[in-house]
Every structure is written in structure tokens, then in C-alpha cells.
Amino acid sequence: MQGVAVAEAATQKAIAYANERRQGKASDFSGAGMAPIVHHPDVQRNLLTMKALTQIARAISYSCAHAIDLARVSPGDQAAHWRDRANLLTPLAKAFSTDIGVDVASLGVQVHGGMGFIEETGAAALYRDARIAPIYEGTNGIQAIDLVARKLPLGGGEHVHGYIAELEAIADEVRTSNLQGFGRTAEALDQAFDDLTEATRFLQKLLADGRLDEAQAGATPYLRLISLAAGGAYLARGGLAQQSRIALCRFFAENLLGEVSALKERVIDGAESLADAGKALITA
After folding, report:
1. Is 158 strand, coil or helix?
2. What CATH code is carried by the domain that includes residue 93?
3. Catalytic site residue 272?
4. Catalytic residue among 120, 137, 198, 272
């Protein structure tokens, strides 16, 4: 939750500053003088990226906590199911959330411009404080390897696919909701889940064949891939529950979720080039 907390603080601070700082003209600003920078599309994109990623990191962390609670109080097979779910989501909650803390704090510095680089605004302090979180309590690289090597095989390799099926059901709800404003969200989610399934089965096959080094080469991009795909579904669930959240969900689906396809390519096709280029690094 440290990553979530830093990301939330950085987002709130950046939005407030963007509504105060004035620079340039904006077509939708009718006031006197220069427009607050929040009116500029590039600044809006940064702020919406911060907001969406923060909400996703929070949703993943809450989902993990929810699974831990249900594993503690559920009977028999239900408890085993929720233990597997908590185990699957734990590396996501730790690694993705702390990576997002760094990413969002960095965007916060960018929104502040030169004022973000100095200590006066506090934006730089958030960025500096966020940077330790991906390192301690198991570096995020180790969390990614744990996800691939130990968590994907849970339940004979089927638990993760049950989780993906739950996410796919949310895309179906969006498609049949008839709510205005979702745009291409359902289609973007469908593509993300197809990519996630392909990458997951590819890594599971590598593990089954004993090709652990190749599986580990794709571990870090895979952790981000599954987190972004799940995050898109969580944002959609929020939009289905509260229509004021639909616009952010659509922004994420149509502007950021496409990264999943590139991450899938890194998981599936990146190991050989990584190994070949890595040989030049070794002197010990």
C-alpha cells in the first residue's frame, strides 16, 4: 500500500497544481489571461494516466486483501480457492503497486515542471520516497519470478485461467450494459485478455518443459501485463457500478491498455535476444 499511497498523494498534488499554474492559451478556457495548464491535452493525459494507474494499483491491492480475508474465514475448498487467489495476487499487489508509485510520482514531477524538481512543492520528495518501495521486501524482479515460477502453476495451472475468466465476464457486462460512454472498452478488454491468456499458456509451457531461464526472461513484462489487463477490468467494474467512473475507464482502455499487446510480444519473443545480448555484459 505504500506505492498506492505515494501515487495517490502525487496525483492529488499534481491535479491541484495544474489547476493553479497558468501558461499558454487553451480553446476551452474563456477566462482572462493565460489558461491553467489543466486545460492542455498533454497535461490532461498525464493526470489521467496518474489517476487511472493509481486506481488500478489500489484495486489490485484491495482484491488481494479481500482474498486473504476470505481464505481466513471460508470453509474447506473455498478457503483453498481463496488462498490460491491471494497467492496469485500478492506479487501483483507488491510489485505493480510500487512500480506505479514510482511512475506516477515521476509524472507528478513532470506536471509541476521545474517547480517539481526543487523541494518547494514536495513533488520531488514523493518521487524520492517512492523509489525504495520496488527494492525492499523482495525486489520487484524477484516478485515477478515468484509469480511465474510458483503462482502460475497453482491449481494444476488452472487457477490463473479461472481468474482470467472472471475478468472476461466483466468485459461481457460492459458489452451488454447499454451504458453510454464506454466507447471501445469491451473490445480493448477482449484483446487484452486474449493476449494475457496466450502469454500465460506460453509461460506455463516453458515451465512444463523445464525451460526456466526463458520463463524468467519474460517474468517482469508478464507481471505488468497481467496487472494492466486486470486493472482494465477493475476500472470497468467501477464504471458499471458508478457512471461517473466510465470516462476514466474508457481513457485507460483506449489510451493505455494497448501496452498489453507489446508486453505479450516481449514475453513470447524476447528471451533469445535477451540471452544473446546479455553475454556481452558478463566479465565475472
Report:
1. coil
2. 1.20.140.10
3. no
4. 137
